[in-house]
Design goal:
The chain is mostly helical. Helix content is about 50%, strand content about 10%. Helix 2 links the parallel strand 1 and strand 2.
Length: about 270
């Protein structure tokens, strides 16, 4: 039986819901969450109470380095993702004969944003790229005017933002108002890959590049993707499947497969199968 709880993107609610699901509902495994900060809090509970915790979506690199025995991740993390960004920039420099010498980093202040910015700054240093702005801001802020003004003054060759959807839309709108146009805009997924951003902002979302572990044109080579997309669209109001739901799907399959292979709903047997 599947029991769904809403953490509302808040670590403290995620922690409380994890405790409730384990203590009151008697769940034998936990699955989630989109927000790395929520997974960090909820998986702490799962580790203490010895219940398997699986995430397909949370991408903070620190999550799997805590020495936990009950935490499992099925997807790449932001260390992998950021490496692809810098590989892409190196190829772009070579192909176009340009020099991407400076970077500007903007990140929200939860675990997702902080860890993403840390990895980006480290890889920029390894690439000989100067970070001319590294700006954190409060998640779900109501204004990014000062941050955009700072970025415009610093004028980096590449802009690297890490934001969830509401913040990403606020940034794009603010940048347009203040006439800030990054020469190269490479986002850390999340809000910039949410179809809502493109649907809401239209042409203002043009020229934004984002890393992603999935693209729907992969269906040309993997027919199952098209079949899955058709099922997904019946539940999403016709919206095509994209990478967070795909990562959720893969992670959930892994957990269900582990339970089947365990042949048991005993948490330790499921952990061993994972």
């Amino acid at each position: 039986r599947l029991i769904v709880a809403d953490h509302q993107g808040k670590p403290e609610i995620g922690r409380g819901e994890a405790e409730r699901l384990i203590t009151n509902e008697g769940v034998v495994a936990l699955y989630g969450a989109y927000h790395s900060s929520v997974s960090a809090a909820a998986s702490n509970v799962a580790e203490r109470m010895q219940i398997p915790y699986v995430t397909g979506e949370s991408s903070s690199p620190k999550l799997h380095t805590r020495g936990f025995e009950w935490f499992f991740r099925t997807g790449p993390h932001d260390g992998h993702y950021t490496k692809t960004m810098f590989d892409f920039m190196a190829e772009l420099e070579k192909k176009l004969g340009i020099d991407i010498a400076t970077a500007g980093i903007l990140h929200e202040d939860t675990q997702f944003g902080v860890d993403s910015a840390r990895v980006q700054a480290e890889l920029a240093g390894e690439a000989g790229m100067e970070v001319v702005a590294n700006i954190g801001y409060r998640s779900k802020t109501t204004s990014l005017t000062a941050e955009v003004q700072t970025l415009k003054a610093a004028d980096p060759d590449v802009f690297l933002p890490t934001s969830y959807t509401v913040d990403a839309m606020l940034f794009v709108r603010t940048a347009k108002e203040l006439d800030y146009n990054p020469r190269l805009f490479i986002a850390q997924n999340a809000g910039y890959n949410d179809p809502t951003l493109r649907e809401t902002l239209g042409a203002d979302a043009e020229a934004i590049i984002s890393r992603a572990p999935f693209a729907l044109d992969m269906a040309d080579r993997i027919p199952l993707i098209g079949q899955l997309d058709a099922i997904y669209q019946t539940h999403s109001g016709g919206r095509a499947i994209y990478d967070p739901p795909i990562r959720s799907f893969v992670g959930a399959l892994v957990l269900m497969d582990a339970i089947n292979r365990a042949g048991s709903t005993d948490p330790e047997a499921i952990r061993q199968a994972l």
